[in-house]
Amino acid sequence: MPYVLVNMEMSLLNNSKVCKIHIEKSSLARTLEKVYGIEWGFSQETPLDSYHHLRACIIKDIVIEPGEVLPIPTGMYLQLISPNYIVEVGTDHDLAYKEGLTIFDSPMLFSYTFRNEMWLLIKNNFKETQTIQPTKKLATFSIRQLPQMVINYVDAIEESNLNFRTSKKFIQEIKKKVSPDIYDVKKKRLSEFYSREDINNYISRHNGS
What we know:
about 25% helix, disordered N terminus, Deoxyuridine 5'-Triphosphate Nucleotidohydrolase, Chain A, 6 helices, four-stranded antiparallel beta sheet, elongated, about 25% strand, alpha+beta, 2 domains
């Protein structure tokens, strides 16, 4: 029965789009494969997972201090075959919860023009030192399709009657918090220097009454 269910789930992928990638393993990654008896590839829990795992391609333990950010190599040289896709490398949530290790600028993006080894910027968010061992799973690797973008420069963008948090009001609130001395200054009304009687007298004289 489980075999039948797996086949049914795999059939869901028949119509999905295919992104072809060329991967070159570094010489150190090939060595680590032999030493630790593992395959240096993009491991998945199941074929239906939307991501793969990336490992630490290092020869010895690396200690990362609290709040420290260190670059860690993956042993994977990347080449996307199509410019319609981009690689996103994100934080492994289990690793973040258990050891406080996250991708510093998650997600890291690798585009079609990237032709080199992928390095990960790992940050220790805990107050205790953490250790990164060779072959340790550090991040998730996934693919995102890019739509074609057409930019049209106009004299003015269209206004919207919807009062969502993306409106001018929300932006103005942000400006006031960032620079209150500039954007949170109340504008003085010109009429505050005149009494109501002065204004009525002015209107009367102007109208000739």
